[in-house]
Amino acid sequence: MNTLHIKKGDTVVVRSGIEKGKSGKVIKVMPKEGLVLIEGIGSVKKHQKPRRQGQRGQIVDKHIPLRASKVMEIGKHKEKLARKRNPKS
User: Fold this and answer.
1) Residue 21 burial (C-beta neighbours within 10 Å; 0-12, 13-18, 19+)
2) What sign does the dihedral 18-49-60-26 (CA atoms) show?
3) Rounded to two decimals, what is the model's pTM?
4) What is the CA radius of gyration of the chain?
5) What does CATH list as the number for 11-85?
6) 3-state helix, strand, coil in the chain (%, to 5)
7) What was the pLDDT predicted at 27?
8) pLDDT digits (tens, 9 = 90+) for 20-42
9) Three-state SS for 77?
10) Which of 35, 38, 57, 39 is nearest to 48 (CA)?
């Protein structure tokens, strides 16, 4: 079983991709796939066809999980920024 550096309930920041710089709380962790589901990040709109006659099609908001390697805990993120701003010579 794979272990991840992120746990459910952690506050994380996205390091790369379209959502870069956004932060949110981890809702679900999927260690076997290496994915995390973050509140308010990675939502897409899915167009759904009607399934029965007389039913209307609809647009559904769906959460898409991100790779765990693309996110970092907020505390570690702030430490990394501090090191960048004040490099040891």
Assistant:
1) exposed
2) negative
3) 0.70
4) 18
5) 2.30.30.30
6) 15, 35, 45
7) 93
8) 999 999 999 999 999 999 998 98
9) helix
10) 57
Beta bridge partners of 62: 44
How many Cα atoms are found within 13 Å in the side-chain-facing hemisphere of 67?
A: 6
How many Cα atoms within 13 Å fall on the side-chain side of residue 5? 11
**Tokens matching residue 24:** 């949110």
The burial class, CB within 10 Å (0-12 / 13-18 / 19+), for 52 is: exposed
Residues 2-23 have a mean pLDDT of 87
Query: Quick one: tokens of 20?
Result: 């870069």
Give me the residue spans of the domains in the chain.
11-85
